[in-house]
Amino acid sequence: MKRIQLIMLSVIVSLSLSLTGCGRETADSSENLSAGSDDGVTAQETDESSLTDGQQGAPSAESSEDEENAGAENREAGKIATIVTHKVTGSSEGKEWGNGVYPEIILSESYRLEFPKLAEYIRRQNDDWASTLPGTVAEYAAYAMNDTFYDDPLYSSEINVAIIRADDNLFTMTVNYYDWAGGAHPNHYTRSFNVDPVTGNEIRLDQILGDSSVLSDAIRTKLEENYPGIMEEVDSFYFQDDGDDPDQFVNKLKEDTYTYTVTNEGLRIIFSPYEIASYAAGYLEVLLTPDEYPNLIQKAFLMDEAQDMTGLVETQEGDVIEVEPNERVFDSDVHEIENPTWEPYVADSVTESVSNPITLSKVTEEKTDWIDVEVWAGERGVETASPYCEDDQFEYIPYNPVGYSYMYTGLQVYEKDGQNLIYDLNLVNLCNGPDNRDGITSDTNQFIRYEASVDNTLYVEIGHNEYSVNEPDSSYIVAIDLDSKEVLFRSEPLVANASNFRIVDDCIICGYGFTAEPDYIYILDRFTGKKLDTIKVNSAPEQFEIIDGILNVATYNTAYTFKIGR
Questions:
Q1: Number of H helices, E strands in the chain
Q2: Mean pLDDT, to the nearest integer, of 383-400?
Q3: Which of 291, 323, 355 delimits the end of a domain?
Q4: Which pTM does this prediction carry?
Q5: Residue 493 maps to which CATH number?
Q6: CA 379 → CA 196, 324, 340, 369, 374, distances in Å?
Q7: Which of 139, 151, 257, 438 is 20 to 30 A from residue 309's alpha carbon, by CA?
């Protein structure tokens, strides 16, 4: 990426969740956070309650102008990072209406040199936090000024981080998100980031485990031990489709939705409120130790002794950042893309269709237990797919997350060979509604998975991380005219939830699959989005790459190659 510049924007869905008092949450002590809504205690004040034994509350990072000095001090002190908390305040006429904090992690110079791809990963996280939080505080302050329900409300949005582990095998941090903008209680949740320091790629829990077959029973046993009687609520909270759905803890592993850390103590899993039980249940944790479950964690990820993270990571406070209360979420230069309807749709302006569709003829099929897509991509000399990507025309930077930090609903489009922002698109209505025809909103958080352009048309894959029964109008391709900002088509749902798609001639190659759902590769007409061909595969498609004219496909457990016919 030549440039990752994210605009200061509010998290729209987080705001709406805050106002209604519902949503996912962040972790400190759930008891303390709940008290925050009644007693005015913020997430920062309660953050000294730790998720793991000995873990300190989440701080943040430092301004760029101090980076060189901080790095030198770290080297001298044998530290790997400095985390500086940036405080943000939104005031008007001397009264504070909104506030918050966000982190910036500054790795020591020696650590950056040793792990340059990790440093790039951290830089992207810093950009995301710094671009999102001030805009959220500005908007929250504006809402507080107009709030007639509470007396002198002080709305808050906070992001706090703690580094849990840093060695040659894993760099782990937990990030706590907290929002309160009215409502019965704050919205807060915790997410863990486990990164391979060498490659800079996030590591799935199933890549950490040895014998994953014991995971579900182990979690159930420990939850019941730690919170007697909780499993009745947990099982009733989980959606069951006529008894055909797999065990929810098995399913979460396949979907990669666990918040987890691995230390010398073992595997710790953290469940935020609303994740597997009600808000009232609070945060739920289990610790699965190597003594009790000797084959659960691969030996490469086990630790002989604890790291002294307080000695390796320094915490500092930065200067206070002042923002003006601003109720507007998007600037006038941001184009809001309308959602015409949730049904398959082709605009009246579309007059062209594919005249000579491509065909796919299977060449090879190599089945295994599970494909590490990172390894698969590396073997083929390509990167793992991401919405942060570029094509022959543009570089794409997603922003404005809903739910979790990777669930983006905004997209900035830059010149590929320069620094200029060409298009700034707000897709929140397109992702989650309401639509223009019926005013319906999505039942789950949908977000941008991938994007690419041909001529003057932008193609975007939009989906969610749940079963299709939870939101059947999802996992589709949409086409947008970059001149008029008009939606040209919305494809059928349930055709695209892989990490990317590919456009060949006048066709789109995409794929859909999910646990206990059919798995297919689809060929779509790139002018109308209509389905041209359906190819059954063994498991869910995850990434498509065209190498030397051959389509390479990684699915969950099978690697395919196809000859492209014209």
A1: 13, 27
A2: 91
A3: 323
A4: 0.53
A5: 2.40.128.630
A6: 17, 50, 42, 18, 9
A7: 257
